[in-house]
Amino acid sequence: MSTDPGEKPALTTIFADERAHKRRLKKARLVVVEGPDKGKDLAIERERVTVGRSVICDLVLGDKAVSGTHFEVIASERGFLLRDLDSRNGTFAGDLKVREVWIKPGTVIRAGQSHVRFETAEGSIDIELSDKDRFHELIGASVKMREIFAILEKASPTELTMLVRGETGTGKELVARAIHRSSRRASGPLVVQDCSAIPQNLVESTLFGHERGAFTGATDRQRGSFEQADGGTIFLDELGELDLALQPKLLRVLENREIKRVGGDRPIPVNVRVIAATNRDLRQMVNEGKFREDLYYRLSVVAIELPPLRERPEDVPLIVEHLLEDIAGRQGARSRFTVEASAMARLRGYPWPGNVRELKNTVERAASLADSAELTVRDLMPSSQKTPQVMVRGANPEQYVEEGLPFKEAKQKVLDVFEAAYLKALLDKHGGNVTRSANAAGLTRYHLRELAKRYGIRDGGE
């Protein structure tokens, strides 16, 4: 066990002609050496594996003292990292209770009454990277994105249900559109349904439809999103906002491929492929009883985690070039823009809390207002370099609303302002202590740390 990175990398990138060719994962496994599941083991064959009592975990333990998702082991270029997932009884490496720690072969991890030994072995597993820098509208030459492209190239032509997770603005809807266009259902409809934008009392009828007279105001029969997507694909965005009471009905649709309209008694078959997305940690929601374990299991047949833009700065120039090509196409060849070298360096160095969506808005705004065809720091950075303003008492809320944006984007910008200000004030109040801050806010430590990381707010410790 070590608080420093492991002696040898767990994950290595292999290059060919100065271009990343594949990633190589060192073989390792987890072996239960004590507890109800003694003798059970798991070969670590991907970058992240989870352990816990829930069926959504890679290594499922029957120990009742173990949380639903108790801990995870992450392989990286720095070694193997053990991370507690806000478990009820804590995770121990040796005799030490840990939040996260770098581990070495032979480390015994204790969760509840179970002892799990981490072991490495000779050999490795190769993780494929796509040889392309884009997948439809998704763009990126970084290793992380090309690994995702390789998964999409294989999974898109199938009928598998897929779950896409990532921060706001990372391109989850673009993933869904790309999957649909690469599938056998490309000629059918793609229905996009934002679960966070539906009034709570209308969610069921919006998704599954309703019969005439089913409720006050239902003057006609209405087909829901699933029926509209028949023969094609339905994309359920922000699925983490779906009410717990409605989740069993969605589960039945996934299992039986049929729906019942509100006020109806006849099952209606639907031939749809389901792609879901969320910016929330559904595993943590399962732990907290806010999301059904069986529904998560059904949705995450293929799971994709989109990295935030700050974790792949090498992709910024590619994305900017694509955006400028698109603008030139709409405005005519004479409107082709370039970006000054110093401005591009600033774009690469900025953390982009709004991710690709914020970068897109920044570039389009700069192209619309610039005085010349070469975009400078002055053109590009005034809006994107702003850190979220603190909304002070007595301020006019309208000053934080950016006109001309779609409702969802404008709403997210205001939420970004609030979240950044709230987190900073919260951590300042508790001296940067994550545990006390999380308890005061009613958040998990993991959720608070992820939010703080998103807005570039440093925490001070436990």
Keywords, please?
23 strands; 5-stranded mixed sheet; single chain; alpha/beta; about 450 residues; 7-stranded antiparallel sheet; globular
What can be said about this structure in brief?
It contains 14 helices and 23 strands.
Oligomerization status of the protein chains: single chain
Largest sheet: 7 strands, antiparallel
> Helix- and strand-based class?
alpha/beta
State mean pLDDT (0 to 100 scale).
87
Find the count of extended strands (DSSP E, 2+ residues).
23
Structure description:
The structure is a single chain. The protein has 462 residues and is an alpha/beta fold. The protein is 31% helix and 24% strand. Strands 1, 2, 3, 8, 9, 11 and 12 form a seven-stranded antiparallel sheet that branches. A five-stranded mixed sheet has the order 5-4-6-7-10, with no helix packed on it. A five-stranded parallel sheet has the order 16-17-20-15-21. Helix 5 (247-256) crosses helix 7, helix 9 (341-349) runs parallel beside helix 11 and helix 13 (434-441) packs across helix 14. The radius of gyration is 24 Å and the shape is globular. The two termini are 20 Å apart. The model is unreliable at 386-390 (pLDDT under 50).
